[in-house]
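Ticket #798: bound-state structure for 2-acetamido-2-deoxy-beta-D-glucopyranose.
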Amino acid sequence: MSSIEVFLPFLLAIWDVLRLQRSLDLHQEEKPDSSVYQSVQATLRTYMLKPRTRYLLPIFMVSYGCYLTQGLWISSNSTFICPIALDLPRDVPLMQIGALVLEFCLAVIAYETSPKSDGRGLSGRRCVIATYGALDMSIYLTGLTTTIPALEFIWSHKNPFPPTPASATKVAFLLVWSGRWTYRRIQQALGEKDPIRGSRQFLVLVLLCTALFPAWRKQSYIHFHPIDMLMYDASIHHNKYLEVVGNTNSLTETVSRYKQRYHRNPPPGFDVWFDYAKNRSVLIVDEFDQIYEDLLPFQAIPPSVLRRLTWEMVSNPWNEISGITIRNGEAKVQENVLPTHRWMLEGVAVLINSFARYLPDMDLAFNLNDESRVAVPHEQAQGLRTLALAKDQNGSGPFSTNRSAGWLPIPEHEYHETVFRESSWRNSFDMYGSVSCPPTSLARRSPRIASRSHLCRDCLAPHSLGQFLANWTDAADVCHQPDMAHLHGFYLSPAAFKASHNLMPVFSQSKPHGYNDILYPSAWNYMDKVVYNPTPPSGTPGNEDYNPGHPDPPFSQKNNTLFWRGATSEGVSSESNVWRGMTRQRLVHMANNLTSHPHDRVTILLPDLADHSKYKYQTLPGPTVKEIGLNTDIAIVDFIARCGGKDCDDQKAEFNLVKPSDFQAHWSYKFLFDLDGAGFSGRFLPFLQSHSLPFKTALFREWYDSRLTAWLHFVPQDVRLHGVWSTLAYFAGLNGTMWGRDIRWQAHEKEGEMIAEHGREWASKVLRKEDMECYFFRLLLEWGRLTDDARDELGFVV
Ligand SMILES: *[C@@H]1O[C@H](CO)[C@@H](O)[C@H](O)[C@H]1NC(C)=O
Ligand SMILES: *[C@@H]1O[C@H](CO)[C@@H](O)[C@H](O)[C@H]1NC(C)=O
Ligand SMILES: *[C@@H]1O[C@H](CO)[C@@H](O)[C@H](O)[C@H]1NC(C)=O
Ligand SMILES: *[C@@H]1O[C@H](CO)[C@@H](O)[C@H](O)[C@H]1NC(C)=O
Ligand SMILES: *[C@@H]1O[C@H](CO)[C@@H](O)[C@H](O)[C@H]1NC(C)=O
Ligand SMILES: *[C@@H]1O[C@H](CO)[C@@H](O)[C@H](O)[C@H]1NC(C)=O
Ligand SMILES: *[C@@H]1O[C@H](CO)[C@@H](O)[C@H](O)[C@H]1NC(C)=O
Ligand SMILES: *[C@@H]1O[C@H](CO)[C@@H](O)[C@H](O)[C@H]1NC(C)=O
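RESOLUTION: The complex was predicted; output attached.
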């Protein structure tokens, strides 16, 4: 029920007053010796019962109570940008008022025109009774449709975030119940019958009180900080992970673990791969679930068809997909690659050539865009999976020797067929983003979330602990997060998006949950497009030759500031206002442009001023975050990219553009934010390698996602960004004033440094170039088996 519809009963009551109610002529014998109680009763009778407006107050109480209940859902605002400067259209409230009036008219008309059984049209007494019917109905319906979801909500959201205003629970229920009770008493006094008898009313009251109990008990203080708990969980999770990844020197053991995990024999050449991996001191040799999951559905497609699909994709330049050919142990970029993307494929070829001599002949189709390409609808994907799982691959033969004949050369004349559809510049969530979700999931079931300005709690609850992201893997799952449609540039309006619902074997650098692209380690990092390369100061301080350089000091000596620089490249905003939902823009807005407007208030978990061992979610005016000492340096560089028309001007007015800075300047800050662009963020690996602490939010996931543990190697942030301030407060500490009082909170320096150093150390073990080579090598052995005509007879046995 939308916000103001709950006033429908009240409107009906007014109409009822005007049309039907009459003041009563109460014959009361004045008794001079009446007690106080009796005189109160008499006064009540005179003022409540007698006038024709007798029902207005109680019904108003019910409506207003229901209205307050809605505070439960909207008690936390989203970070969706509502720039005050830009004069937001106010059509939403107007539409609601329109809907209310319409409903009211319908209710009245429906009643007034309904044929009466005696055929005499409206006649006084019948009319009054029927109206009571309509009023009663609307009160019951309004009450039920708001209180039942409210109670369910209270029962299912017992944690302290988001804080629920007392007005939304206690006051609201008191109003609804006492309004309803008064209404009933007046009816009784007038001798009307009530469909619900008195004894049942009592029962309802008891039920209500029981149901409300958690709301009363809900504590506003918490006695542990969620981050402490999440860090503890993370180390347990990582230790469990270490047990399964298998750091062994025995090929036999690795093969048997492979069979256990994937229920088939390893591909031919596995022994060479293992040797290769061990030569490069690779730690992870068992866990390659990403490869398994990515390739599984293709097992349902015959090898010759896979080869044909690869050829089709690379033969039509419109697809923006280019090929790499591996023949006789050498990888070459195919001739027809777009010049702008040549460097990328050449990088991939360099990466492949580090192990290509061990590979059989094959062709590969690479996605040249950052955006992913293939989203197979749920039902179809399930079918493919089932089919694939039914095949068994327990063979032991080597790769066929006649493989090169199976791959067609690029045609002389351009090939024009394609399964991809141009889907750029429009919302892609329903069409591609959520198609992989089960039909019963929130993302496919619910109508689009009505309000972008409020936080969707059902969307974040499954992966959150209070305000903090608790499970990085679950947070990638869009199936419970329909609000994502308005929170990321890739869904809102991707810049270069040619997508397909058909399963196509295309290799991409990153993908959001639900896409079927095959992930491979990006050449961006392999070819050092961005690199962690701090330089020490040189020369003598004070002298002319002094160069401060870009050192990477120990964590404790860094600037206590959250830092980000970047471009508005997440998606295209052209006359559509969609930039207001994009993650990058929202981050910049919340760091620089919070005003004291109510929508800009932030909810932040702070220690109690007196007792620092307990915490409470406080809702503060936007500018206060700076006053309590949270520092950010977050800005868009140079110009507004990927915008059109009015959206360019709006963003220019909203954002302060800065000059680009040296990438190596990052290391002087303690906290580095990492966000997706049009696809994955190439900076994350350098961030991890540094002594700084990366905060990361991402829709796009890369090949190494399962290797990292959130809260142990980096600090995860929800795409909604609603926990950024609380997280920063925890790690950076507070030193400032709030409500005119000094507020000090020690920074969790030790914890911050621990995550920064753990991430750095782990990245130097499992995210090296050698690890990229090994991942890719293994991926291509599996791809080689998939595309071999003798697929089922292939395999490696010790
Ligand atoms: C293939 O091997 C796996 C594990 O090694 C086993 O679970 C499966 O039953 C085997 N399939 C056949 C058909 O032998
Ligand atoms: C591993 O190293 C050994 C010794 O250096 C070498 O003989 C072997 O060829 C290497 N294996 C691979 C797959 O590179
Ligand atoms: C390779 O040879 C096998 C057996 O002769 C044959 O079945 C298969 O189709 C051939 N593959 C290709 C790609 O020509
Ligand atoms: C996240 O949730 C999944 C189940 O949904 C679980 O398997 C995994 O261990 C959880 N991850 C962490 C870090 O707790
Ligand atoms: C920390 O960084 C901020 C923002 O970049 C800058 O204004 C400030 O001067 C720096 N503080 C120190 C101590 O360098
Ligand atoms: C959310 O924003 C609205 C105005 O847009 C404001 O009235 C309301 O108080 C805000 N809620 C919170 C919890 O700050
Ligand atoms: C947003 O903040 C930036 C940096 O403080 C400022 O330059 C810009 O004018 C602000 N925009 C608005 C609309 O206030
Ligand atoms: C807090 O800020 C004040 C002035 O801004 C400064 O003098 C003081 O050293 C700071 N305290 C801490 C613990 O950082």
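RESOLUTION NOTES: The two ends are 65 Å apart (CA to CA).
TICKET STATUS: resolved
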